[in-house]
Amino acid sequence: MFSESLNWTLRSIKLLRTAEFKPLVVFVKPPPLERLRETRAQTSPTELRSSGRSFTEEDFQQMLREAQLMEAQYGHLFEKTIVNDDLSAAFTELRKLLDHIQTQSHWVPVSWTHS
User: Fold this and answer.
1) Which residues of 52-84 are buried (b: 16+ CB within 10 A; e: fewer)?
2) pLDDT score of 18 more than 60
3) In which band, very low, low, confident or very high, does the pLDDT at 12 lie, cut at 50, 70 and 90?
4) Which residue of 23, 25, 80, 108 has the fewest C-beta atoms within 10 A of its own C-beta?
5) What are residue 31's phi and psi, to 5 degrees?
6) Reported pTM
7) Which residues are CB-neighbours of 80 under 8 A, at least 6 positions away?
8) In angstroms, how far is CA 19 from the centroid of its own chain?
9) Closest by Cα among 109, 6, 107 to 66
10) Which residues, at least 6 apart from 3, have a Cβ–Cβ distance to it below 8 Å?
11) What's the N-to-C CA distance of the chain in angstroms?
């Protein structure tokens, strides 16, 4: 199920990226297996209740396999890759990227400037 939704999302990125529109694509990559186990073991009971269960070893393996596949097939579409081994650091890195982008000039097609 998770793979199917990712495939749809990745196809969308390919369709959206045109000569007129270039979305900012940030890939949030899982950390190495050991760190993934550690960080997910620290998941709060509230977070576990919302999903209904804790992560299994198969979940971890699937996350890593799918991340490798995504990076191999679609890495050329990513503007930035952030490794989510520390939530606070990953969020800070994403926030810095967004702040930086807001200060840059951006090209838009002339057709977008006329009503």
Assistant:
1) eeebeeeebeebbeebeebeeebeebbeeebbb
2) yes
3) confident
4) 108
5) -75, 175
6) 0.71
7) 24, 26, 27, 97
8) 23
9) 6
10) 66
11) 41
Phi-psi region of 17 (alpha: psi -120 to 50; beta: other; left: phi over 0): beta
Residue 81's Cβ-side half-sphere holds a number of Cα atoms within 13 Å equal to 14
Residue 84's pLDDT is 93
Question: Residues for the chain: how many in total?
Answer: 115
Ordered structural domains, the chain, with CATH: 11-103 (3.40.50.300)
Task: State the amino acid at position 98 in one-letter form.
Answer: L
Q: Which residue has the tokens 């997910």?
A: 40
- Give the pLDDT confidence score for residue 49 in this predicted structure: 47
Q: Around Cβ 16, how many Cβ atoms within 10 Å?
A: 13
Across 84-90, average pLDDT: 92
Closest CA to 86 of 47, 34, 35, 50: 35
